[in-house]
Design a protein that fits this description.
Elements (H helix, E strand, L loop, with lengths): L3 E6 L6 H11 L8 E6 L2 H10 L6 E4 L16 H6 L4 E4 L2 H6 L4 H13 L3 E6 L3 H5 L3 H13 L4 H6 L2 E4 L13 H18 L2 H6 L1 E5 L4 H8 L6 E4 L7 H6 L3
Bound molecules: 2-phosphoglycolic acid.
The site of 2-phosphoglycolic acid has 13 residues, from strand 8.
């Protein structure tokens, strides 16, 4: 049985004080019995949030990593640095990073491999634009993002140590959620692709989240779909709505 995983992607929000107040306010109201819960604050807040959630079952995640170990890469953060604050997860390949910071499939694959080497679980984001969906290249596009991201990753890692987040770009921050059927259709397709790349066991083990305008009013419908193993939540992870989402029925 795959345990659902719900991650809050704070993006570039919250100062240290704001983050501290927010997590102290929500942490005891989050039920982690049936859902694995991950908070992904900005890098400035990682260490503080790590301390605040230390005696809970809430896990820490980062929003990005660089694939080199150390050196002259101004502004970047290494996987060892993430380990030093006890990060267990790291989002990679978010569409905002692909779009605004020119991240390529190749870079995302290198980041995934570096994280796995350091025992941090990558949350690999994939998703299509509205144009891609409407012009019919949707499945081809997602299939190639998945193949490229998983290139050279062992079946053991793919089965146990990878999370894929399907996030249609047209649904991110727009209030426009994919219908639960559209989300399920794509998560199932991704699982089928993983089966082709590996085998039944990997397809069965890998966790696939949906992301894009997840909110309390649609969480339960989306999260109860068969092939949707959780959610990557942006805007709603910054408010009390996050508590309602993780405690869904
Ligand atoms: P959203 O963002 O929930 O604000 O749509 C999701 C994401 O980008 O991860």
């Amino acid at each position: 049985m795959r345990k659902k995983i719900i991650a809050g992607n704070w993006k570039m929000n919250y100062t240290l004080t704001e983050a501290d107040n927010f997590v102290n306010e929500i942490k005891d109201r989050i039920n982690t019995d049936k859902v694995e819960v991950v908070l992904c604050p900005n890098n400035i807040c990682l260490d503080r949030i790590s301390d605040i959630i230390d005696n809970t079952n809430i896990k820490l995640g980062a929003q990005n990593v660089y694939f080199e170990d150390k050196g002259a890469y101004t502004g970047e953060t290494s996987a060892d640095m993430l380990l030093s604050v006890d990060a267990k997860y790291c989002i990679i390949g978010h569409s905002e990073r692909r779009q605004y910071f020119a991240e390529t499939d190749e870079m995302i694959n290198k980041k995934a491999k570096k994280l796995l080497e350091k025992n941090i679980i990558p949350i690999i984001c994939v998703g299509e634009t509205l144009e891609q969906r409407e012009s019919g290249v949707l499945f081809e596009h997602i299939s190639s993002q998945i193949k490229n991201a998983l290139e050279g990753i062992s079946s053991d890692d793919a089965k146990n140590n990878i999370v894929i987040a399907y996030e249609p770009i047209w649904a991110i921050g727009t209030g426009k959620t994919a219908t639960s059927m559209q989300a399920e259709e794509m998560c199932k397709y991704i699982r089928d692709e993983v089966r082709k790349l590996y085998d039944e066991k990997v397809a069965d083990g890998i966790r696939i989240q949906y992301g894009g305008s997840v909110k309390p009013s649609n969480a339960s419908e989306i999260l109860n779909m068969e092939d949707i193993d959780g959610a990557l939540v942006g805007g709603a992870s910054l408010t009390n709505d996050f508590v309602a989402i993780v405690n869904y029925d």
